[in-house]
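Incident review: delayed structure delivery

Summary: a single-chain prediction request sat in the queue longer than the usual turnaround. Root cause was a stuck worker, restarted by the on-call engineer. No data loss occurred. The affected request and its eventual output are reproduced below so the record is complete for anyone auditing the incident later.

Affected input:
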Amino acid sequence: MCINLTDPIFTDEAAAWKHFEAVRWPNGPICPHCGSVNDSDPIIGKTARHGLYRCRAKECRKQFTATVNTVFERSHILMHKWLLATHLLCSSKKGMSAHQLYGNLGFGSYRTVWFMAHRIREAMTEIDPNASGGALGVPDKVVEADESVVGGLSKNRAYSEPAPKKTVFTLVERDGRVRSKHVPNVTAKTLRPILMKNASRKSTLNMDEAPRYTRMGREFAKHHAVDRSRGE
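Output delivered after worker restart:
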């Protein structure tokens, strides 16, 4: 869905809260303390912060906002900035760094934007990726597997001491989800348990021509290997 960046939810605090509450509470405010639904009153006043409610239940009567139990809880950052940052991170085709986000949000502190980016990404984490139906790939879907070494040049690091490079094994469900895991080595003994735990064997597995993938590929419905000798 395409959202207009001039939409008031990205510029007006009241509109941002109204939008967030509609998404968070489609059936009315829910008290996070006692669980009562649509049984609270908004607290309105010059000193009251946006989105503040008080539960009407006699045994409760506590205050709350829609941000309770979310990554926005206890944040002093304006809601319309949170919504704009979330939209920019989610809609950017090639991703967006905290530095790019810093330029778009107009904050005075880079650390604030860095903090926001990490919280938003944390909200995208699968709660239980290995629950029923959680495996990547299904019949007629492709899962791509590959590993990469992560580690920058010395001139790009904050400290001059050499940092050991880390190997990351990544599974990509084409047009879908991604899972990555740090591995100590790239042997079949190390990679196979990760692959079998996170990818459905009913899917098509795409990998490179490395021998370690050959036997694993046979355990899937279909498997294809990139032939780098032919420039693929």
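Verification: The chain has a mean pLDDT of 85.
Action items: add queue-age alerting; document worker restart procedure.
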